[in-house]
Amino acid sequence: MIAVSETGDPLGAWYRYAFEFDMFPDYPKLGVWPDGYYATFHMFQGSFKGAAFVAFERDKMLIGDPDAQMIYYGEFSSKFGFLPSDVDGEAPPVGTPNYITGISFFGSHKMQIYEMSVDWNNTANSTLSLVANLTPASFNSDVNGISQPGTSTKLDVMNMVLMFRLPFRKFEGYNVMLANHTIKVGGRAAIRWYELRDDGSGWEIYQQGTYAPDNENRWMGSIAMTANGNIGLAYSVGSSSTHPSLRYTGRTPDAPLGEMNIAEVEIIGGESSQSGISRWGDYSCLTPDVSNDSVFWYTSEYMKANGWGTRISSFDFGATQASTAYAGDDDSVCENAFFYTSGSALYYQNLEWTTSGDGMFQNSNTLGAKYLRGSQDVENGSVILTLTTYGYEAGQQTSDNMVLTIIRETVADAGDDMIVNSSGPVMLDGQAEFYEASMWTSSGDGAFDDPSMLDASYTLGSNDMSSGEVSLTLTATGDEMCGFEASDNMTLIYDPTTGIRNATSEEFSVKIIPNPSSGKFMLELKGKLDENIDIAISDMQGKKVFSESLRNLGSDFSRYIDITGNGKGIYLLKVNCGNVQKISKIVLE
């Protein structure tokens, strides 16, 4: 069973997964990797059958998807005590394989490194390959148990396996892995540790050492590295005169290779011995703090006065790391959508997102905050989002900015309706904003010279002229990511008895209040009205729904009109005053 926390709260809900094997999967060891949870097992079916290397589909397990898959390699009868690499700090690039590492304790003592690459879309494309066969300094792993005061029971050393974890760290120009196991030095147990490096030319043993500063036994180690290159090593300590206890040591990057230059510190001293049972914990765990990467956290077993207990402790080798902040790359968002930040940070107590505009953050104290742009952001076309992190020391803070571009919604305006007295060509006056392409279409049988141009010209067809009018539509398409599109119509009216007139001639003006409406509106006429006025309203099929003739108005005029008995849609209002005709759209909702 594998449980994955649904949130950042370990006391909250968990997704639980059960994966079934044909054999008993003993001694499981997990590693977290960008494309999966990787694990190694010792497979038993009555007896040991071999090691197994396994990957679980992390992306699906993080969201509770029941179709999460497993990829299995095994059983390898000659392999024992291998570990999957486990990321600390910055994740490796997408596509980096997981490194599964172990030592042949029963034979050559070679350190082998395998690359396991998975393809969750087609698991048959996954691969497992040996990429390094390294030679450590010689050692003797034949440790015959750990003596204790006051009892003949010796504690198990687990000296035939690499000890948990196999931490991986990415640095500028190279990658690091650390490993440790128990060996025999002068009749006592000691910790052998390794720093492996890959600078792009393959893995090598960069440095190695054996920690045995006195006659005490040291075993059950765990090793890790912080972002500044400090290495911590924590372990169990015991002998015929020392109850099982916990201690740690370490090194700074400037220490001579192979040496731990930080004096040993006792985490907690043992107070009793374990009798009757030789098994001792099987593992301990040392990890850097994910938010303050100069601090190590260590968990292991020790002996209290009344039996064994688990000790959780922390220690620090250096100054607190300054907080880091990365707001993310400059990005864009559709005008009608939320933007989700994707910042990253290290070594911080808390953080905050702020904006240079008038938008609003939801959950501004999380890396993955949600931002709703404001009206001023839209008008400006962009906004600066700032991530500020606050470190562990007073006054310690770091900020970083990213520019968020607002992709505006597309606008299209086909222009004013027009009256023409010939088939054309008629020059159109389309307008568009925030668009990438435009296209004119016709409801009739005429033709455009270039329908992709806003100022295209249109030649009426025979059907256009016989019907007396044609509707032309301008469609503008915007950013492909947002799928923005806008359309607008204008009407060409064919009247061979008049010259071409724009429907917004300055001789008089027409105003409809309100528009759109339910069908009840005020018609206002202003300007030169000293000739006979004819008013007509018709639907888009030409059916007349209202008409009226007015005489000798002379000056401004207003008229209340009610056409609520007609259906919703677009209607055309035609106002003829002498030799001038105005056409306006009326929208009924």
Key traits:
about 600 residues; single chain; 5 domains; five-stranded mixed beta sheet; Immunoglobulin-like; 3 helices; 49 strands; eight-stranded mixed beta sheet; mainly beta
Describe, in plain words, how this protein is organized in 3D:
- With 589 residues, this protein is mainly beta.
- The protein has five domains: 1-133, no CATH class; 136-320, no CATH class; 324-407, Immunoglobulins (Immunoglobulin-like, Sandwich); 411-494, Immunoglobulin-like; 504-588, Immunoglobulin-like (Sandwich).
- The protein is 3% helix and 53% strand.
- The chain has three helices and 49 strands.
- The strands form 14 sheets. It has an eight-stranded mixed beta sheet, with no helix packed on it.
- It is elongated, with a radius of gyration of 39 Å.
- The model is unreliable at 499-505 (pLDDT under 50).
